[in-house]
Amino acid sequence: MRTLSFILFFGIVFLVYGLINSYIFIRGLRTMEAGSIMRSFYIIVFWFLALSFIAGRILEKFYLSILSDLFTWAGSFWLAGMLYLFLAVLLFDLLRLLNLIFPFFHYFSGFWFYGNSLILTIFTASAVFLIVLGGHLNALNPRVKEIQIPITQVAKGSELRIIMASDIHLGTIISTRRITRMVKLINGLKPDAIVLAGDVVDEDLAPVIRQDLGSILATLEAPLGVYGITGNHEYIGGAVQAVEYLRSHGIHMLSDTMVSLAPKIFLAGREDIDSRRFSMKKRASLKSFTAERGKNSFLIVLDHQPRAIPEAVEAGVGLLLCGHTHHGQLWPLNYITNAVFPLSWGLKAFASTMVYVSSGLGSWGPPVRIGNRPEVVLIKLIGSDMANDAEEESRL
Questions:
Q1: Backbone angles phi, psi at 260, to 5 degrees
Q2: Of residues 2 and 267, which shows the higher confidence score?
């Protein structure tokens, strides 16, 4: 059953990927003269880039090397370029269709690109290149997003500092230099606790082991501990191996379990909801492992995908922390994540439960972010006036 799920999932992905690339390729090819050097160059470069990501991922499983890194890097950037080339070609074709109904192209007869489709192709490719380059620079510079949650379980005038990072995607792309900078940024914020909300590693663990990235993660510093949960990518690549690796490097992996983080403050971590699809493992209900925390307590829950918000509300969760969405990562995909999930990014109250969905610290596929920023989330649990009043009443 697990094998069938993989075949179906990746079969659909490869079909869509092939159709999109073929559409872009054909439209670009038509703008070039048959037999020209540029046409031959275009064919070779296009299919090298289009097939690089698949080739790199396959090579990573059998032959980790500079060659597999080259294919993976080239293919990863191509994924972003492919999206914007597809949107550009689709826009041009829609304009052509509209021109057949309401002729308006002749109004542009004085412009440099009129009647020269090759120049328009070169201009479009150059514009996409600059967009992807800008998105890459954006992805390299995460911001610190600070949120404050007033709670009654912390005395007035005190705070508990929790750093949340999700969707790091350690591997060939997010490797030594990037993770070192991420760890330095997190440690510099002096957190009391650190939580990693899933997709800590990418699908394949081999590049992580080869580069010993776990030893860098092990330098994360927090007196109350570093905690993590599985995401869908851990399950795609093999959750058992990923969890064992992270645990061996100082990450306390929560698997449908709860721990006491501080007096009256508990932290629970859920298995990813895709555990059933990829490993036939059904995760436990939230109430089944959080019910013993006591009534006057504050419960923080890590759940990689923001799909079970109603269950969190029903279980009396104070703060639900999720990732997964990347907030689309590449505009305009954020419109899709906004439509699919109850919350794609940011902080929102659902009844008495506060939910924060992070846009993620790393990236999947292209090391590119357009339309959103990567982030480290600094959560301050602040003692509220209500907490102070409750302490005064207890003394009376």
A1: -85, 120
A2: 267
- Judged against a pLDDT cut of 60, whether residue 395 lies above it is answered with no
Please name which of 318, 377, 42 lies closest in space to residue 153, comparing C-alpha atoms.
Answer: 318
Whole-angstrom distance, CA of residue 323 vs CA of residue 166: 6
Give me the domains of the chain, ranges plus CATH numbers.
Answer: 2-138 (no CATH), 143-392 (3.60.21.10)
pLDDT tens-digit series, residues 21-54? 999 999 999 999 888 999 999 999 999 999 999 9
pLDDT at residue 175 greater than cutoff 50: yes
Q: Who contacts 338 (Cβ-Cβ below 8 Å, separation ≥6)?
A: 328, 344
Residue 128 has what DSSP assignment?
H
Instruction: For residue 107, give Cα distances in angstroms to 32, 62, 110, 119.
Output: 25, 56, 8, 18
Side chain identity at residue 68, one-letter code: S
Give the span between the Cα atoms of 336 and 327, in whole angstroms: 9
Beta strands in the chain (DSSP E): 143-151, 159-165, 193-196, 226-228, 252-253, 257-262, 265-269, 298-302, 319-322, 346-350, 353-357, 375-383
Mean pLDDT of the chain, nearest integer: 91
Higher-scoring residue by pLDDT: 157, 127: 127
What's the pTM?
A: 0.90
The DSSP annotation for 156-190 comes to: TT-EEEEEEE----BTTTB-HHHHHHHHHHHHHT-
- Distance separating alpha carbons of residues 210 and 204, to the nearest angstrom: 11
Q: Which two tokens stand for residue 109?
A: 């007869």
pLDDT digits (tens, 9 = 90+) for 305-337: 999 999 999 999 999 999 999 999 999 999 999
pLDDT at 380 over 70: yes
Q: Which amino acid is at 102?
A: F
- Report how far residue 203's alpha carbon sits from residue 60's, in angstroms, rounded to the nearest whole number: 11
Name the region of 30 (left: φ>0; alpha: ψ -120 to 50; beta: rest).
Answer: alpha
* Longest pairwise C-alpha distance within the chain: 92
Report whether pLDDT(111) > 90. no
Would you state the structure tokens that stand for residue 311, as one six-digit string?
A: 């269950």
